[in-house]
Automatic annotation (TrEMBL):
Single Gene Ontology BP annotation: regulation of translation
InterPro entries: TIF2A, TIF_beta_prop-like, WD40/YVTN_repeat-like_dom_sf
Region (Disordered): 458-532
Basic and acidic residues composition-biased segments: 494-505
Similarity comment: Belongs to the WD repeat EIF2A family.
Pfam families: eIF2A
CC per GO annotation: cytosolic small ribosomal subunit
Domain Translation initiation factor beta propellor-like: 215-410
UniProt protein name: Eukaryotic translation initiation factor 2A
Domain of life: Eukaryota
Molecular-function annotations in GO: mRNA binding; ribosome binding; translation initiation factor activity; tRNA binding
Keywords of this entry: Coiled coil, Initiation factor, Protein biosynthesis, Repeat, Translation regulation, WD repeat
Length: 580
């Protein structure tokens, strides 16, 4: 049986339409394009339903044949969301009040999709955390109300089953999957006390003693919490609005790790600067962080928060894993040129390096073979349009808006996990009439005073760092702790020193007298011997650095530069030895 073809929803000033995904990239014939301006749209989690608001009403249709499921008279709806099992549609519109109704109208509405009846009308003034969070089986639903977490069971929103008894909870994240559900709660610091994040397993919500894990930290105005797919750990990116040192325009960020088994850690990032993006691998065993002043570094860490692979430096600020987890795209959008690095994360080998200039949106197709990039308003009001790519860099479909029109959003149809099996990665570009757009090799700006010099002599603003595998035990040896590695290196150094002492010839017991002419001749030899000794010393230090790199240690920039000079030192040593 052939896998399904994902749909791509497109909305803009010309209306709303559904597009069949690659290879056809044609209009989805059962869906008639809605020419009215669409405020918002969404797919259900399993991809069977599609909902949108056109300024008159909210409509819900089946994706397969576009048959109508329900219609709601909600012209002001601006946000839509389905519950995981498609039992409820949640709609939100801006909160307003008038002289006649000083309390305002309930603006968060829950609708039963089968009957079309309203289940509950709630007040939600802020757009942040507007939508209730469900467990995958819909047995538990959580909502933040006045800095408290209210828990509901079995979609009964008339009864608050449980509350999290912590004051001033400003954000939360419910774990994915079914029971037992876990929740991460963030409480900002005040009056000198630190901020903290705690993990709880429902229904054990009583204070610190029932928490699965607790991590406190300073320097946090807001946090972003991300669970992995297995709900075994959560990553917390803590941010401040202002960097008091003045080093960064983006404020300060720190990354914290909490596991449900109680383990917590601060993720150590070797380069200073902002944290641009954090992404969990779908396998839940590792995560990628893009960080540091430009050119930014990107590193994959394991669940012990140890680096596994460093992608070096480059113009990037985002990371996107494919749904199957076998491909990682590192991209630089926004104020960067749109360069995308496509990596095979099993072999740590680069597949392609296409470029999508002016892109404001990127997302993976559920099949793990294709991606879409788009330039949307209001982020950019010129050159609006979208492209569908194969991950090897080929552009399969391109659409640009007509003059005077705008593109607002594109979104792939969702599918249940396992709908598309992982395929073998190809390194040859997929055939396409539109070709590929590989990123050109650009040269750095050089001031006029340096342009007459060779490129190698020009002053560099920064040193590019190459990718390096940081996994311990690459050559098959057993992984050792830091202390064990240190002791092992000491033993190897002592052993090498003993061997050198044995190989050195013993000085003669009765040296013959040396004439003045002989001493003059030997002074040059002595100078050469000194140079050879110094070169051997430098080469020995380089060998030690290479051993440290192989064992997984992160080398500094000056240490990497020393390693790069090894060939030059060997040539100098060879020349001196020939001249003797």
């Amino acid at each position: 049986m052939a896998p399904p073809v994902p749909l791509l929803a497109v909305r803009g000033s010309d209306g709303t339409s559904l597009l069949c995904g690659p290879p056809k990239c044609e209009q989805h014939s059962p869906f008639h394009r809605d020419s009215r301006n669409c405020r918002c749209f969404t797919f259900s989690r399993d991809g069977t339903l599609f909902a949108w608001c056109n300024g008159l009403s909210v409509s819900v249709v089946k994706c397969s044949d576009s048959s109508m499921v329900a219609t709601f008279d909600l012209p002001r709806a601006t946000l839509l969301e389905f519950s995981p099992l498609n039992n409820i549609l949640v709609t939100w519109q801006p909160y307003t009040k008038s002289q006649d109704r000083p309390q305002g109208d309930a603006n968060l509405l829950l609708w039963d999709l089968q009957s079309g009846q309203q289940i509950k009308a709630l007040y939600q003034k802020k757009v942040e955390s507007w939508c209730p969070s469900w467990s995958d089986d819909e047995k538990i639903c959580v909502r933040s109300v006045n800095n408290e977490l209210h828990f509901f069971e079995n979609n009964d929103f008339n009864t608050i089953t449980n509350k999290l008894h912590i004051q001033k909870v400003s954000d939360f994240a419910l774990s994915p999957g079914g029971q037992p559900s876990k929740v991460a709660a963030y409480v900002p610091g005040s009056k000198g006390a630190p901020s903290f994040v705690r993990l709880y397993q429902y229904p054990g919500l009583e204070g610190v003693s029932s928490a699965l894990a607790n991590k406190s930290f300073f320097k946090a105005d807001r946090v972003t919490m991300q669970w992995n797919n297995k709900a075994s750990a959560v990553l917390v990116t803590a941010s401040t609005e202002v960097d008091k040192t003045g080093a960064s325009y983006y404020g300060e960020q720190t990354l914290h790790y909490l596991a449900v088994n109680g383990e917590t850690a601060l993720v150590q990032l070797p380069k200073n600067g902002p944290i641009y993006d954090v992404a969990w691998s779908p396998n839940s065993a590792e995560f990628c962080v893009v960080y540091g002043f430009m050119p930014a570094k990107a590193t994959i860490f394991n669940l012990k928060c140890d680096p596994v692979f460093d992608f070096g430096t480059g113009p990037r600020n985002a990371a996107y894993y494919s749904p199957q987890g076998h491909i990682l795209v590192l991209a630089g959008f926004g104020n960067l040129r749109g360069q995308m690095e496509v990596w095979d994360v099993k072999k740590y080998k680069q597949v392609s390096k296409p470029q999508a200039p002016d892109a404001t949106h990127f997302s993976w197709c559920p099949d793990g073979e294709h991606v879409v990039t788009a330039t949307c308003s209001p982020r950019l009001r010129v050159s609006n349009g979208y492209k569908i790519w194969h991950y090897t860099g080929s552009v399969l479909h391109k659409w640009d808006v007509v003059a005077g029109s705008e593109l607002w959003e594109v979104r792939w149809q969702s599918f249940p996990e396992g709908s598309f099996p992982e395929r073998a990665i190809k390194y040859q570009a997929a055939p396409s009439e539109l070709g590929t757009t590989q990123a050109p090799n650009t040269q750095a700006y050089r001031p006029p005073a340096l342009r007459h010099l060779p490129a190698s002599q020009g002053a560099k603003l920064h040193e590019d760092e190459p990718p390096q595998n940081m996994r311990p035990g690459l050559s098959g040896e057993k992984s050792l702790s830091k202390t064990a590695l240190k002791n092992q290196k000491k033993r190897e150094a002592k052993k090498a020193a003993k061997q050198e002492a044995k190989t050195e010839p013993e000085p003669p017991s009765d040296p013959a007298p040396v004439s003045n002419s002989q001493s003059e001749l030997s002074s040059g030899d002595l100078e050469n011997d000194k140079k050879i000794k110094n070169l051997k010393k430098k080469l020995k230090a380089i060998e030690d650095l290479k051993d440290q790199q192989a064992s997984g240690k992160v080398l500094q920039k000056n240490q990497l530069e020393k390693i790069q000079k090894e060939d030059q030192l060997l040539q100098e040593l060879q020349a001196l030895q020939i001249g003797q």
